[in-house]
Amino acid sequence: MNLSKLSLSTTTLSPPSSLQQLPHRRRQFLDVRASSSSSSPATISSSNSNRRVVVTRERGKNGKLIKALAAHGINCLELPLIQHTHLSDMDRLSALLTATTFDWIIITSPEAALVFLDSWKAAGSPSCKVAVVGAGTASIFDEATVSSKQLIDVAFVPSKATGEVLASELPKDGDEICSVLYPASAKASHDIEEGLSKRGFQVIRLNTYTTGTVQHVDQMIFEQALSASVVTFASPSAIRAWVNLLPESERWGGSVACIGETTARAAKRRGLRNVYYPSNPGIEGWVDIASTFPLFRFLLLVHINKRGGNFLEITTRSKQQKSRDLFPTMSSCHSFCCKMNEAVEDEKLRRDRFSNLHIFFVVVAIAVFFCFQL
């Protein structure tokens, strides 16, 4: 698991492939491989137990994320921000599944998969070939009944879990007409049908459900969420709901862990800072961000507070103690330490330059003062 970045005010390094952060002025990327602890396992273990991550999916659908984070020793605070509503196209979906056979049925979210399964059962459970956007959506079909899995062939998953990549990679037999049924959220973008249409696919899109904000949020839970280590988001709708709840007078600066790039860009557009997301959207990368980023922010603060310390000391201690609690390999540890040292040196250089500039202006001010006295 690679961690993208710890925020400093200087230098820019290349981000690793598995985790990205949206562009932001004067920020820094660090390539780190880590598990769940530091060079002081007892200290970090205690810190983990006190950390809290906020989960914001619809009520009853946060269980998988809560369980995964609990495996990292992290407590979760459930604050549902969205709710789903079925639309009239859901009935049309059942009718189409009964009357028509499609070359592909495209499903791009767990909720779309659940809605599809309901309509599919109402249509008499016909055989069909499905393309899903990623592992999280595929898992909904994996968890279905045995009879469902025999009749629903999940035949394609793109190399990257985004609609654009799915549209560019979906298999097509030569120049033959290929029919696609795309049941989706009314708020989903049009990237898939536009991309497929350009490649010659015939696409029918049905808006089977929509996502809206919840009518009521417990104010006490929301106040706790504001001070949490990380808030997780799985959709732009959840981002919108969160921002609308924030007091206008408060500039919230917490860390945001998004399930994918689409949600992350929505967060950035809404003015949120410290926005992180896995380059390949899905539950595993999402959990890695939410569980690991606060740990490395903690390590950075420890190092800066020590001032005289050096991150390469961690490498030495790990060798002596034969500890693999922080890094799975010594080479990854050494890589992290070197980059962290470079970052801290750059930060010190920036501070020195600022200090020298400050002294220069003081000297100029004194000189001007004496000139006027003469």
From TrEMBL:
InterPro entries from the UniProt entry: 4pyrrol_syn_uPrphyn_synt_sf, 4pyrrol_synth_uPrphyn_synth, UROS/Hem4
Region (Disordered): 1-20, 32-53
Pfam families per the UniProt record, alphabetical: HEM4
GO terms of molecular function: uroporphyrinogen-III synthase activity
Reactions accelerated catalytically: hydroxymethylbilane = uroporphyrinogen III + H2O
UniProt keyword terms in alphabetical order: Lyase, Membrane, Porphyrin biosynthesis, Transmembrane, Transmembrane helix
Domain of life: Eukaryota
Transmembrane region(s): 354-372
Record-listed E.C. numbers: 4.2.1.75
The keyword Transmembrane helix belongs to this UniProt entry's keyword annotation: yes
Low complexity composition-biased segments: 35-53
Any single GO CC term annotated in Swiss-Prot or TrEMBL for this entry: chloroplast
Metabolic or biological pathway, per its Swiss-Prot or TrEMBL entry: Porphyrin-containing compound metabolism; protoporphyrin-IX biosynthesis; coproporphyrinogen-III from 5-aminolevulinate: step 3/4
Domain Tetrapyrrole biosynthesis uroporphyrinogen III synthase: 65-287
GO biological process: protoporphyrinogen IX biosynthetic process; uroporphyrinogen III biosynthetic process
Keyword Acyltransferase among record annotations: no
Entry function: Catalyzes cyclization of the linear tetrapyrrole, hydroxymethylbilane, to the macrocyclic uroporphyrinogen III.
Family, per entry: Belongs to the uroporphyrinogen-III synthase family.
Name used for this protein in its record: Uroporphyrinogen-III synthase
Source organism (scientific name): Centaurea solstitialis (yellow star-thistle)
